[in-house]
Amino acid sequence: MKPTNQKIAFIPKLYCNMFGHDFEVSRKVTLHVKEYQCKKCKKQATTNGNGRLTELTPKFKEINSILEQIYTRRAMRLASNSYMETNLQITG
Fold first, then answer.
1. DSSP 31
2. What is residue 30's three-state secondary structure?
3. CB 46: neighbour CB atoms within 10 A?
4. Nearest residue to 61 via CA among 79, 37, 45
5. What CA–CA distance (Å, rounded) separates 78 from 83?
6. For residue 37, which of 51, 27, 19, 24 has the smallest C-alpha distance?
7. pLDDT band at 14 (very low <50, low <70, confident <90, very high)
8. What is the predicted pLDDT for the residue at 27?
9. pTM above 0.70?
């Protein structure tokens, strides 16, 4: 006998097969790269190099996490450089 929770999980998948996924942003990696999750069936997707949605595989998860680290380091470096430049302009 199969557990009843498999029937419950089948209904959102059926809905998404008929009407399409209802993706919402679950994580912002950079300004252009985001991770999405379907509200109904919990399927995950991300944007690829062409800007299209692709399934979020472990490889894409790793790529996104490394990309996020690079992006945040760069943003912090640029913010500190602009802060130093404004201090030089005020004192000079």
1. S
2. coil
3. 21
4. 45
5. 9
6. 24
7. confident
8. 94
9. yes
SS3 20: coil
β-sheet bridge partners, residue 55: 45
Residue 80's pLDDT is what?
Answer: 85
- List phi, psi (to 5°) of 32: -105, -25
DSSP characters for 44-87?
Answer: EEEE-TTS-EEE--HHHHHHHHHHHHHHHHHHHHHHHHHHHHHH
What is Dmax (Cα atoms) for the chain?
A: 80
How far lies 2's CA from each of 6, 8, 34, 63, 75, in Å? 8, 12, 37, 38, 51
Q: Which two tokens stand for residue 81?
A: 């450089």
Angle subtended at Cα 72 by Cα 24 and Cα 56, rounded to the nearest 5 degrees:
35
Which residue type occupies 25?
V
